[in-house]
Specification:
The chain is of the alpha/beta class. The protein has helices at about 15-25, 45-55, 70-85, 100-110, 210-220, 245-260, and strands at about 1-10, 30-40, 60, 90, 95-100, 115-125, 145, 150-155, 160, 175, 185-190, 220-235. Helix 2 links the parallel strand 2 (about 30-40) and strand 3 (about 60). The longest helix has 16 residues, at about 70-85. The relative contact order is 0.18.
């Protein structure tokens, strides 16, 4: 049996996180043992009591401060290793819902490609959460791509998603090796861990996944896009797209990446 720790961060997002957890209840697996670990990043919206009441089966860890995306996931990895010592870690944003087969497909692909370390699904905008809502027919909602890989414009240190805003017509249905991926949903081989951490805590929020991808490339490992595995994402559901928090960390962390 292959063991997978699914790590989800929550920060004042109990409604979105609950939808994510509900979708995980429907996943279908063979020869995979999943363990769900929820890290509450010092929420103040009643999240902890909500999860204790409605999801008592979930392993819940609380923090005394907001550790950010990087620190929260690192804490999750450390706790998961202590509890289960899994073969893989699945980092999953709380503002996502998943296809029932998404994890099986990611793990099967990872096992078949042992030179890979990071494996990313195809990610769609959650219906009604597209950047350009008026552009799409109702029948196209849920099939608008948010992520089909990523690439970096190194002259400007600006990362962008491949396929973003395109309606999926099968144009990104082949597994491909990637330059960059996203921390929104990624299956991580345990060999990636550095001192029981995945991310550099310095980043706090944004571009920590870019930093991770660069480190994996330096190790001679591969990043893979696995399009049969599918997830839906409410973009910036936790931080708020265009918020001051969003803009500050995007700008700051681009500078860190560029200097590195």
């Amino acid at each position: 049996m292959t063991s997978v720790a699914i790590i989800i961060l929550n920060y004042n997002g109990k409604d979105l996180t609950s939808l994510c957890l509900d979708s995980l209840k429907k996943i279908k697996l063979q020869n995979i043992t999943p363990h769900i670990l929820l890290i509450d990043n010092n929420s103040h919206d009643g999240s902890v009591s909500h999860f204790q009441t409605h999801f008592p089966e979930i392993e819940l860890v609380t923090t005394n401060e907001n550790l950010g995306f990087a620190g929260g996931n690192n804490l999750g990895v450390q706790k998961a290793k202590q509890l289960w010592n899994p073969d893989f870690y699945l980092l999953l944003n709380n503002d996502t819902t998943v296809d029932p087969k998404f994890l099986q497909l990611l793990v099967d692909f990872a096992i078949q490609h042992p030179q890979g370390s990071l494996f990313f699904p195809k990610i769609y905008f959650a219906p009604g959460n597209e950047f350009h809502k008026d552009r799409y027919k109702k029948s196209e909602q849920g099939k608008v791509i948010w992520f089909a890989g990523a690439q970096m414009d190194w002259n400007n240190v600006y990362g962008s998603h491949i396929g973003v805003d395109e309606v999926d017509t099968g144009q990104f249905d082949q597994p491909t090796q990637l330059e960059l991926g996203t921390g929104c949903c990624v299956l991580v081989d345990k060999s990636v861990l550095n001192n029981d951490e995945i991310f550099d805590n310095k980043f706090f929020l944004y571009y920590e996944d870019t930093d991770l991808c660069l480190k994996v490339h330096k190790q001679g490992k591969k990043l893979w896009f696995v399009p049969d595995s599918q997830v839906w994402h409410v973009n910036s559901g936790s931080s708020g797209s265009g918020s001051g928090l969003h803009d500050y960390f995007l700008t700051r962390n681009r500078l860190i990446i560029g200097m590195r």
